[in-house]
Amino acid sequence: MTIFKELINIWKSDDLLSQAWDESIEMLRFSEKIFDKSIEAIHSNKSKKEIKVLKQKDKLINDFQQSVRRKVLTHFSVKRNNENIASGLNLIDIVVDAERIGDYCKNISDLSLLLDSELNCEPISDQIQKIEESVSLRFDKTLEAIEKQDELLAKKLLETYKKTVTDISDNIVDGIISNKIQINNSSQSASLVLYARYLKRIGAHLKNITTTIVNPYDKVGYVVTSASFED
């Protein structure tokens, strides 16, 4: 039995940890919905009121995180048994990354509010679309890997993270700053740099969550096949 499957069994064997596990999954699904809505907002002419309502949903993500923390803390306080403490720490790490994803989605919504019109992605619309689709797919696959305890899928997500997220974001940012990618509107130029970075950070936090499936606790957040932490 793998370490992650053992953790799943621990989480599901206790009422409080089982509730915390269910809330963690629900929190990730909710974060995915917020992400989709944020992407939609920055590419459309939604009213400022609609975007502000979207931003307020971030509070629900914070509520999820606090609830999971309370349940994990209560479990170990009542049980007075630190034998499986890594299982609780893993759950907390998952919701911390989910909360950070919510923050970056809120940053994307802030960009939508600041722009006079929808984000103009020319002349790099293809690259923007690729990284958007990659991060969106990673939401689905990360949830699938966690719920099915699929280590092979988790490893594939980690192996492809740099090529499908980091490299694309870095190429956009480096190209705009070095003026290799020329964008006449300075506001749009700055917005594209920020947007590419926000997408990269969301992808990075999804990657961190994926590492809980295949890595021991001290390696969570790291791609162990790499010499350095991809971030």
Tags for this entry?
single chain; 231 residues; mainly alpha; Methane Monooxygenase Hydroxylase, Chain G, domain 1; disordered C terminus
Topology:
Blueprint: H1 3-13, H2 15-42, H3 48-56, H4 58-79, H5 85-114, H6 125-148, H7 151-177, H8 186-214
Describe the structure.
With 231 residues, the protein is an all-alpha fold. It has a single domain (3-219), classed as Up-down Bundle (Methane Monooxygenase Hydroxylase, Chain G, domain 1). Helix content is 78%, strand content 0%. The longest helix is centred in the middle third of the chain and has 30 residues, at 85-114. The protein is globular. It starts with a helix and ends in a 17-residue tail after the last helix. Residues 226-231 have low confidence and may be disordered.
